[in-house]
Specification:
Blueprint (H helix, E strand, L loop, with lengths): L1 E4 L6 E4 L3 E3 L2 E3 L5 H6 L8 E7 L4 E8 L7 E7 L1 E8 L10 E7 L5 E4 L3 E7 L4 E7 L8 E3 L17 E2 L1 H4 L4 H4 L2
Parallel strand pairs: 6-14
Antiparallel strand pairs: 1-2, 2-10, 3-4, 5-12, 6-11, 6-13, 7-10, 7-12, 8-9, 8-11
């Protein structure tokens, strides 16, 4: 696997290194030793999938509060997404900064998201499926979120979302949750 650091401290794009043959190719999608070698504290304990019927569906911006913060690896296995992460760690040099990466079935990229980040995505195609590996189990009482259009982050989405859940649309501004 190839790890390319993103502009946010501790976040990476993870690309496959395919071994091709006449049948197609074989590639490793996860290796604990390789993640550890890049400073990624990641032993996954839970996997999930998100299926999204329509292009323009926005999910996010989600995070888990302390003490149940979660690191995750996100990969788009069908369709395409514009994946966004925001650094919510006050001690970080990239605090309140964001980065967006296109993940698709075609480019086979994944993104490693450290603990303390908010995560969300906008689907770029109908019938898009996203696969998550999480380093912590989900704790509903620790689930949190901030607005996808929060001026504190000024995320530049590729286009206006057409579908968003009422829960995600009602998340507070960061200034309201940051104290």
């Amino acid at each position: 696997m190839k790890f390319s650091p993103l502009s946010l401290q501790g976040a990476f794009v993870v690309e496959l290194e395919p071994i091709p043959d006449e049948r197609g190719f074989f590639a490793r999608t996860f290796c604990g030793e390789e993640f550890a070698a890049h400073g990624c504290d990641f032993n996954f304990v839970q996997s999930s999938v998100s299926f999204n019927k329509r292009k323009g569906t926005l999910r996010g911006m989600h995070y888990q509060k302390k003490p149940h913060e979660e690191a995750k690896v996100v990969r788009c296995v069908v369709g395409a997404i514009y994946d966004v992460v925001v650094d919510l760690r006050p001690e970080s040099t990239t605090f309140k900064c964001w980065v967006g990466v296109e993940l698709s079935a075609g480019n086979r990229k994944a993104i490693y998201i450290p603990k303390g980040f908010a995560h969300g995505f906008l689907t770029l195609a109908d019938d898009t499926e996203v696969y998550y590996q999480m380093a912590s189990a989900y704790h509903p009482d620790s689930a949190g979120g901030v607005r996808w259009d929060d001026p504190a982050f000024s995320i530049q989405w590729p286009f206006q979302p057409e579908m968003i859940s009422s829960r995600d649309a009602a998340y507070p501004l960061f200034s309201e949750v940051a104290g």
